Amino acid sequence: MDDAELLMSEAYSEGTVTQVIRPAAIVPEAATRSILVELAIRDVRNNGVWQSEPSSWSRFDRTWNGSTNTTGAELIGSIYVAYGTPSRYEITLYRVTITKFGSDNGWSVESLCDEALSFGRLTLAECPRARLATPPPVVRI
């Protein structure tokens, strides 16, 4: 994240840090299955600290009190994902947000990703990266 992005994040989000992962991290098929199973087992509504949804995985500091009662639970951060890309059984991690609470408690983009990816025996640094295509030529009329 460059200084301008960090400044805007601080100004508009009261300490929330958002980082776009470039190039995007690709979770291979074998790790994908393990990660999804472990996130489900560790669901925040079932005495865990993770809430996985179709577009994001969110980490809380403690379990919820019931299925929707978040009393006392603070969001640490979220990993934004796309299922089935680049291939059917892979997952792409493309953006991560750490809340002010998470940042104040020592969490970073890397540590949040590494915790989730550890369920598939990966770290963010070890994840394969998406290939960036060459942009199409500019059309001049």
Structure description:
It is a single chain. The protein has one domain (3-61, 71-120). By secondary structure, the protein is α+β, with helices and mostly antiparallel strands. It is built from four helices and five strands. The longest helix is centred in the N-terminal third of the chain and has 13 residues, at 29-41. It has a five-stranded antiparallel sheet. The protein starts with a helix and ends in a 24-residue tail after the last helix.
Brief account:
By secondary structure, the chain is an alpha+beta fold.
Distance between the termini: 35 Å
How many structural units, i.e. domains? 1
User: Rg from C-alpha positions?
Assistant: 17 Å
- The share of residues in extended strands comes to 25-35%
Query: Largest sheet, if any?
Result: 5 strands, antiparallel
- The count of strands amounts to 5
Morphology:
globular
List keywords for this structure.
alpha+beta; 141 residues
List the SSEs and their pairings:
Layout: H1 3-13, E1 17-27, H2 29-41, E2 50-52, E3 56-60, E4 75-83, E5 91-98, H3 100-104, H4 109-117
Antiparallel strand pairs: 1-5, 2-3, 3-4, 4-5
